[in-house]
Amino acid sequence: MSGKTLVTIKGVKDGLVFVLDDRCEWESLLKELENKLDRHGRQLSGPAMQVRVKLGRRLLDDDGKEKIRDIIGRYGNLLVESIESDAEGPPVIPRDNLPLYRMAGIVRSGQTVEHDGHLLLLGDVNPGGTVRATGDIYILGALRGIAHAGCEGDDGAIIAASLMMPMQLRIADVISRPPEEWVSEDSWMEFAYLRDGVMEIDRITQLHRFRKEATLSKGV
Amino acid sequence: MGEAIVVTSGKGGVGKTTTTANLGTALAMLGKKVCLVDTDIGLRNLDVVMGLENRVIYDLIDVAEGRCRLVQALVKDKRFEDQLYMLPAAQTKDKNDITPEQVKAIVDELKPDFDYVIIDCPAGIEQGFRNAVAGADKAIVVTTPENAAVRDADRVIGLLEKTHIGSPKLLINRIRPSLLKRGEILDVDEVCQVLAIDLIGIVPDDETVIKHANQGEPIVMNPQSRAAIAYRNVARRILGETVPLMPLEEKEGFMRKVRKLFGMG
Questions:
Q1: Which H or E element spans position B199?
Q2: Per-residue pLDDT tens for A20-64?
Q3: Which residues from chain B sit within 8 angstroms of residue A128, using beta carbons?
Q4: Edge-to-edge, what's the strand order for the sheet holding A78-84?
């Protein structure tokens, strides 16, 4: 997700079109929208302008739409004319709203576990076993088989495992066989993600940099 | 009421038949009444390994199709008084000529008369496997310390876990200590880590096993062999005893040390 713009503003002859990314986290999308408007607020002053918001394939309830109207409405000259979701194709639920499916057990050779949403596996995936999820895959155990995260095309999905020794990793359409240097038997929990379409592996402590999720820390 | 144990592996050639023959014989030597059942229809060889080939009259299919009574088909091993029997598989039919229900009925009929019914399963996961598993209460999965065998064992464990049998026990066969020491084969811990089921025994590779099988005399009858001791240990564990795993390193005998001294070892 790093480096990719979440909000694109285009000028058309009867106003402006805001194209919002449909795969990123909802919170970071709102933040980005605020930032963009802050930065370009001056340029946007002047006569009232019609704004059409395009959500891509993201599905929003009325609350969410209200939030977007609210943020854009802070700039007096911008009038939200419409908020559109793409009608074609099934709506994509944003990743942070996907259900988490938790299961305990060993996925053995020849077995496949599939799930719509995020998958939390308490156990191992053995060589020849496959786990597949439309969202993220988290494995508290050894990943020795095949894991396919974002199997319906979400290239921002990740695969995390306590022991990362996979036969194959797949995120969205990218398939990668681990080169020798990945096979580290040290006990660091690692995660796999796509950076510019290339599979990368990093320690789990680096995940927050990739996801840029709001950190909630309590206490001193 | 006896207990039916199926010996299976997925992959062929890892020692299912040898294990069946030796565990059965070891249990008989420990005073239990045992019946071995060969379900490898079309490729039977438990009778060969047991040295009972020339005494087969009826077989499993004959019993299933009612051409004889069950007791008529049982072959008695005269080396063990009244302790050890075998029900041979048919050689002229194939695995689809009998159903899991028929096998289960036969095993259920055997169980009241025996302490243990040991079922030799064919390689593969098709009909033959389903036949063998149908009547069993417990399962022993045999593997060797090779990746291919461990993969297949894993597959079979997955299938067994979905049946009434549940989690099987693991027997790691044909471990070669010299290769193990050099790290050229998987070690026992690695295999156990991947398969994650209880280990019931480890059996070192022993060339005399082949000789004994060819002579139709299970290796357990020869107390000099390390494989024999390993199989006896497994039999005792089946009976519920706690027996420590045997060390894989062979102790050097006195004569061997002397020979080594003179550069002949």
A1: strand B199-204
A2: 887 788 888 888 888 888 887 666 667 777 888 888 777 777 788
A3: 151, 154-155
A4: A7-12, A15-20, A49-54, A78-84
**Is pLDDT at A181 greater than 80 in this prediction?**
no
pLDDT along chain B (265 residues), means of 10: 95 96 97 96 94 94 96 95 95 92 97 97 95 96 96 96 95 93 90 95 93 93 93 96 85 66 64
Radius of gyration of chain A (CA): 20
Q: Which amino acid is at A168?
A: Q
Chain B nearest C-alpha distance from A109 (Å)? 5
Q: Which chain A residue shows the shortest CA-CA distance from B157?
A: A108
Token pair 């065998």 is at which residue? B149
Interacting residues of B113 by C-beta distance below 8 A, sequence separation 6+ = B2, B33, B35
pTM of the model: 0.76
As a whole number, mean pLDDT of residues A175-181 equals 73
User: Which structure tokens are listed for B1?
Assistant: 């009421």
Residue type, B8: T
Which residues, at least 6 apart from A117, have a Cβ–Cβ distance to it below 8 Å? Answer: A98, A99, A100, A101, A133, A134, A135
CB contact under 8 A, A106 and B196: yes
Residue A38, judged by CB atoms within 10 A of its CB (0-12, 13-18, 19+), counts as exposed
| Dist. CA A138–CA B92, nearest whole Å | 52
Location of structure tokens 């009244």: B82
Give the closest-approach CA distance of B158 to chain A in angstroms.
Answer: 6
Q: Which chain B residues are closer than 8 Å to A104 by Cβ?
A: none
From the list A106, A109, A144, the residue facing B155 with the nearest CB is A109
Residue A1: per-residue pLDDT: 43
Q: Per the CB < 8 Å rule, is B194 touching A127?
A: yes
Q: What are B34-62's pLDDT values in tens digits? A: 999 999 999 999 999 999 999 999 999 99
Q: Which of B41, B155, B26, B23 is nearest to B87 (CA)?
A: B41
Do residues B47 and B75 make contact, with C-beta atoms less than 8 angstroms apart?
Answer: yes
